[in-house]
Amino acid sequence: MAAKRASTRKGPTMTEALVEAIKANQAGGESLNALARRVGLEDSALSRFVRGERSLTLTSADRVAEALGLRLVQVEKPEKPASKRKRKGKE
Predict the structure, then answer these.
(1) How many domains does the chain have?
(2) Are 41 and 33 in contact, with CB atoms under 8 Å apart?
């Protein structure tokens, strides 16, 4: 499994949130196999995703999210302000 990077982000990644939602769905009584069939994925693909052994395409992740009553949205990163540093020898 890939090592986790230190980050200043707030909240879970899309993958972490989706895995959490899948596990909550399982706790509610729907098996991974049933969810996989409902969204048109191979049972093993969804199982490996939940275990962190593979990723999902954005299309597949969107289908899983929609089946769980969630919606994936794209959040734009704010642009960094232009540097106001003066160049050496110029003013």
Answers:
(1) 1
(2) no
